[in-house]
Task: structure prediction
Amino acid sequence: MPQHVAIIGAGWAGLSAALALSRRGIRVTVFEASRQLGGRARRLSLDGQHLDNGQHILIGAYRFTLDLMRETGVDVASAFCRLPLELRYADGFHLRAPRLPAPLHLAIALARVRGLDWSERLTAARFMAALRKSRFRVEPDISVAALLASHRQREGICRYLWHPLCVSALNTPPERASAATFVAVLRDSLAGRRADSDLLIPRLDLGALFADPAARHIEQRGGLVRLGSPVRRIAQQAEGFSVDAAAETYSQVIVATGPQHAAALLQDERLVAERTVIDAFTYQPIVTCYLQYDERCALPCPMLGFAGGMVQWLFDRGQLGGPRGLFAAVISAEGTHRDVDQAELTRRVQGEISASLGGTASPSVPPSPPVWTRVITEKRATFSCEAGIQRPPCITAVKGLLLAGDYVASEYPGTLETAVRSGLEAAAAIPAA
Result:
């Protein structure tokens, strides 16, 4: 039987798998339930503008993602605002790594940081040294909060560095987040090559950044991407798999949906272990509040941190190829914001921006409310990456049926890079004809 692989889901994992297989000359059909590519990292068209469903930051260590973008023709150099590791907060904290070899870049960044006393800088340096000595392993797994406490990390360095990095990377509060996963992120970013810790803030919307060019390349290689095509049933047959009532028989199937949707497709009695693991997941949200102010308003940098309130990061889309005066306020993971409606959340976000920026914005904080606002909530943006979490493997108990997605077994959290790697892993598990 000629190889023809069905891929369920046109998110970043499914598209990555399809790209890898089509590159090898294997025929693929991608089924996507929605009319939009990208899964949980997608473009939305609202009020006549292209907006993202969340503000995704990449880092220089995302090698597989960046390589696939280049393969599909994306000019990575112009598609991102690439900055050396820089965490700048509205209240004056500022850490910036110079363009020097690792680990010298981090040592100098900690020595020059504004907003911390010397004792906190030293404890941070000792923490990283201890992680290197342990080869960035935490066994058994504990929470990030417990790990930081065991290394006597003080309130300031946790507030401005460790906790924000944890929430940004794992989308899980430090009190619950996996320390083993967190230190893997630190190993490949802060402790990796100097360029690995660079921040890559997209100038393009998520569709133009990857999903659209990926789909074009898949179809140019003979593949098919079917939008608005939900899949409700996968059945194994003597010569392969059937997908719903389609007449086509597929040699292999890659389930690349979100975990909650994947569990519904894993109905074969041999897949009880995979379903049990997935059913045990809990999920974390990401909220993005877009606010369009007067076009004269701008931040001092493309990304500004906030500490102590609801908003964690504020992006100036006007500095990233978007409309001038458009800000995107990001609130990751669970918190008190889940208990208020959108109108109240928007009001609080506006209040925090005005109270925190003071004279920081240029020319000033807008004296009047924004022209328009929009709140986008991904209630299940990622799985909750908790200490000791179990994640299903890519290869299932049914031969020829594979899983791909940011939740599949990995040492990394639920990021775009993890999704891409899982898609490539699933594709690599399919042998040549």
Remarks:
- Residues 118-133 form the longest helix (16 residues).
